[in-house]
């Protein structure tokens, strides 16, 4: 069996991280998971063209899925930090860089690393 290329490893990791956050927010329905797969297909081409961008793929996939969800369903993920005011979504920062995090732009705080949103919102266990 051939070893998995670093590009494929980055894509698999990005998929797993974003799916973990979707599961934490209880929105990992089949149609939403297909949005992740669509982003992975598009980002595969992108990272094949720019292999040095592999560490950035997780943040880009998270942003792709967030944008697609906004168009279809509304804001995601909602900020778990701000208890008052209008509900608002977290942002991925850096927009293009390694070690992406979900950040509340209003409070100016890092909420969780991409893939660790469940820890910030109290876990992914159903209530």
Can you offer a commentary on this structure?
- With 127 residues, the protein is mainly α.
- The chain has four helices and three strands, in the order H-H-H-E-E-E-H.
- It has helices at 6-24, 30-49, 57-72, 117-120, and strands at residues 91-93, 101-104, 109-113.
- Strands 1-2-3 form a three-stranded antiparallel sheet.
- A hairpin with a 4-residue loop joins strand 2 (101-104) and strand 3.
Helix tally equals 4
Strands, count: 3
- The pLDDT mean sits at 90
Tell me roughly what share of residues is in helical segments: 40-55%
Strand order of the largest sheet: 1-2-3
Beta strand %? 5-15%
Q: Which stretches of 5+ consecutive residues score pLDDT under 50?
A: 123-127
* Major sheet summary line: 3 strands, antiparallel
Category by helix and strand content: mainly alpha
**Roughly how many Å apart are the termini?**
42 Å
The outline comes out as: globular
* SSE pattern, N- to C-terminal: HHHEEEH
Radius of gyration: 15 Å
Brief summary:
This protein is mainly α. It contains 4 helices and 3 strands, in the order αααβββα. α1 crosses α3.
Feature tags:
three-stranded antiparallel sheet; 3 strands; 4 helices; 46% helix; disordered C terminus; mainly alpha; 127 residues
């Amino acid at each position: 069996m051939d070893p998995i290329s670093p590009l494929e490893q980055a894509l698999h990791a990005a998929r797993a991280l974003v799916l973990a956050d979707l599961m934490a927010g209880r929105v990992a329905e089949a149609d939403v998971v297909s949005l992740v797969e669509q982003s992975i297909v598009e980002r595969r081409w992108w990272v094949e063209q720019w292999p040095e961008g592999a560490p950035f793929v997780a943040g880009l996939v998270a942003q792709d899925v967030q944008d697609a969800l906004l168009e279809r369903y509304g804001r995601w993920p909602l900020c778990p930090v701000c208890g008052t005011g209008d509900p608002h979504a977290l942002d991925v920062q850096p927009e293009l860089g390694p070690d992406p995090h979900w950040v509340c732009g209003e409070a100016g705080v890092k909420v969780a690393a991409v893939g660790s949103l469940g820890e910030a919102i109290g876990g992914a266990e159903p209530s």
